[in-house]
Recover the amino acids of this structure.
């Protein structure tokens, strides 16, 4: 059985417009920060739904879309998530489960086992990866590149949230298995990442971090294609 092929609706932009969008989007994304201090101000459910719709446009192995976004705004559920997450993190930080190199890496960030934000925020979303799926007949179906697919979906999710003026923290209390049971998920699903979502608190602070420069993250091999330097910061605006 093959899928029907349809013409691709692609919007071709002018070079100027591409440059303008590229620069503006970078500026916008560069202002994104992971937030740990939230206000309890409500957030419309529609915004969360749109962020999940957006994330679910992510490419995935064989288009299996191996993800489930579990959403809760229920104070009791949030309380249970917080309690269980803090229990695990207390063992990490105070029970010596965090290896020394990990402890050292976290020290400048000032994180500890307290996870108040899990109760403060109006919404908590847990992204579950589906290790396999089920076809229409209920038969087990293979899922491909599950981690890669969910990683891309998670990136698009936090991008969508930032773009709509919300803050989040990709949070991975370790180990996360408690979420499967607590949220009543089936055995083909595993927690991938958790996202407390809301507005930053008025007195929210974030670590004064620097991002790697382009030179540190970009390695070019061989010669650039012809004309490719026309749209580059060193050649000035394009016409
Ligand atoms: N999951 C723990 C520890 C932690 C790990 C990393 I890597 C971080 O960037 C931040 C925290 C916690 O949430 O505290």
């Amino acid at each position: 059985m093959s899928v029907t092929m349809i013409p691709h609706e692609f919007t071709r932009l002018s070079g100027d417009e591409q440059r303008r969008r590229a620069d503006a989007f970078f500026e916008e994304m560069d202002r994104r920060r992971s937030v740990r201090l939230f206000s309890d101000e409500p957030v419309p459910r529609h915004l969360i739904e749109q962020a999940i719709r957006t994330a679910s446009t992510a490419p995935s192995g064989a288009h299996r879309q191996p993800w489930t976004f579990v959403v809760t705004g229920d104070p009791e559920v949030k309380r249970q998530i917080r309690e269980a997450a803090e229990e695990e993190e207390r063992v990490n930080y105070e029970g010596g489960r965090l290896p020394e190199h990990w402890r050292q890496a976290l020290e400048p960030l000032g994180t500890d086992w307290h996870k108040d934000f899990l109760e403060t925020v109006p919404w908590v979303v847990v992204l579950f990866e589906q290790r396999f799926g089920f076809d229409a007949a209920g038969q087990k179906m293979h899922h491909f590149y599950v981690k890669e697919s969910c990683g891309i979906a998670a990136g698009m999710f936090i991008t969508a949230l930032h773009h709509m003026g919300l803050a989040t923290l990709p949070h991975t209390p370790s180990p996360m298995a408690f979420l499967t049971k607590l949220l009543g998920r089936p055995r083909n699903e595993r927690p991938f990442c958790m996202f407390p979502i809301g507005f930053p608190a008025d007195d929210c602070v974030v670590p004064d971090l620097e991002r790697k420069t382009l030179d540190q993250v970009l390695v070019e091999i061989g010669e650039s294609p012809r004309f490719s330097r026309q749209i580059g910061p060193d050649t000035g605006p394009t016409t």
Q: What stands out?
A: The longest strand covers residues 189-198. The chain is about 35% helix and 15% strand. Strands lie at 67-72, 123-130, 132-134, 140-142, 167-168, 189-198. The longest helix spans residues 75-93.
